[in-house]
Design a protein that fits this description.
Keywords: Methyltransferase, Transferase. This is TrmH family RNA methyltransferase. Residues 118-259 form the tRNA/rRNA methyltransferase SpoU type domain. One of its GO terms (biological process) is methylation. There is one protein chain. The protein has 260 residues and is an alpha/beta fold. It has 2 domains: 11-97, 60s Ribosomal Protein L30, Chain: A (2-Layer Sandwich), CATH 3.30.1330; 103-259, 3-Layer(aba) Sandwich (Alpha/beta knot). 30% of the residues lie in helices and 23% in strands. It has 9 helices and 14 strands. It has a 7-stranded parallel sheet, with helices on both faces. Strand 8 (118-123), helix 5 (128-141) and strand 9 (145-149) form a beta-alpha-beta unit. Helix 2 (31-40) packs parallel to helix 3. The chain is elongated, with a radius of gyration of 21 Å.
Length: 260
């Protein structure tokens, strides 16, 4: 029996063809991405697959994703080429709902705040690839959450999903908007705020005073930590630089701070 393909004119797949996915959703594409989606039980709103582009393993993965997704549609190779952001289409693409994380009294991202809690704050991040890499660093380091202020990069950008290796679906990510909102929550919860500032005399490896939860703040790629954060009670720390370079990529710097 011939497969009844869904055409590019069908409104059910229009979010895949728009320049941006709807708010709160991200496009995931390819075999590794779909293995990850199934592994973490992601909320797949719509799944598209192209039988013409799939081999045996890909067909099995498509069957599993079709059962898991809220809706699933086969498309032709021509339609999938319009959907795909890649030069070579994989035949697998999903519109995934991003989880919603919150910070409350004594809790962040569904976990209790305690003396050993560590969070990373990314202020003014401009590039989706850096945002994705920061999420991946938070996941790998065991830090409890990534907080965002003055955000410019879109969380829904497909590069965030790719650069994070899908951990954007499992890492608590909370956008506070203005630094003062994040700072108020941190103060209320008893955090030590440590700003990563080039030239600060205090080494980041020096432990904060007392047994309190810790928040590291890293700044944007071009301007660093904003003046709003510098006005918050904080400890200024720096990463010693021993070579010719005077700075690190923001995700690399975050990794040094969190693993140090």
């Amino acid at each position: 029996m011939a497969v009844a393909f869904v055409s590019a004119r069908d409104p059910r797949i229009s979010p895949f063809l728009a320049p941006r996915t709807p708010p709160g959703t991200v496009l995931a594409e390819g075999a590794w991405a779909h293995r990850h989606l199934l592994d973490v039980g992601a909320n797949i709103e719509t799944f598209l697959f192209c039988p013409e582009l799939l081999g045996g393993p890909g067909s099995q993965l498509a069957q599993a994703a079709s059962r898991h997704a809220r809706s699933a549609y086969p498309v032709s190779a021509r339609t999938f080429a319009r959907v795909s952001r890649r030069t070579r289409g994989s035949g697998l693409a999903s519109l995934v709902r991003l989880p919603v994380w919150r910070a409350g009294h004594g809790v962040i991202g569904g976990r209790a705040v305690h003396d050993g809690t560590v969070v990373l704050i990314a202020d003014g991040i401009e590039y989706a690839t850096n945002l994705g890499a920061l999420i991946r660093v938070v996941d790998a380091s065991g830090a409890q959450a990534l907080l965002l202020t003055n955000r410019q990069a879109r969380i829904e950008h497909p590069d965030v999903f790719t650069a994070s290796r899908g951990t954007v679906l499992t890492t608590p990510l909370i956008d506070f908007g203005e630094p003062r909102t994040a700072a108020a929550w941190l103060v209320r919860e008893g955090f030590v705020v440590r700003l990563a500032l080039p030239g600060a005399s205090r080494d980041f490896r020096d432990r904060p005073r007392g047994d309190r939860p810790t928040a590291f703040v890293v700044g944007s790629e071009g301007r660093g930590v904003s003046a709003q954060w510098r006005s918050v009670p904080h400890e200024a720390v720096s990463i010693p630089m021993y070579g010719r370079a005077d700075s690190l990529n923001v995700a690399v710097a975050a990794g040094v701070l969190l693993f140090g």
